[in-house]
Write a structure and sequence with these properties.
By secondary structure, the chain is mainly alpha-helical. The chain has 2 helices and no strands. It has helices at 2-34, 43-66.
């Protein structure tokens, strides 16, 4: 029973992180199309955030899968 809750929690965290990554990627595209920073952040910043969040999700997924 406890393992099911752990899996649900990790799935929820992964879903939230993937959603944040998608939002950052979308903001990077919009900032690039408009050729202007959004809230002082240039498109490259949003792109890096998207990549970093995606890598964190992959690392956490591997970590929970092995344990």
């Amino acid at each position: 029973m406890n393992d099911d809750r752990e899996n649900e929690k990790s799935l929820l965290l992964a879903t939230i992180a993937i959603t944040l990554s998608a939002i950052a990627f979308f903001l990077a595209m919009v900032a690039n199309i408009l050729q202007t920073p959004i809230m002082g952040v240039h498109p490259e910043g949003f792109s890096r955030a998207s990549t970093n969040i995606a890598l964190i999700v992959i690392a956490v997924g591997i970590w929970f899968k092995e344990s």
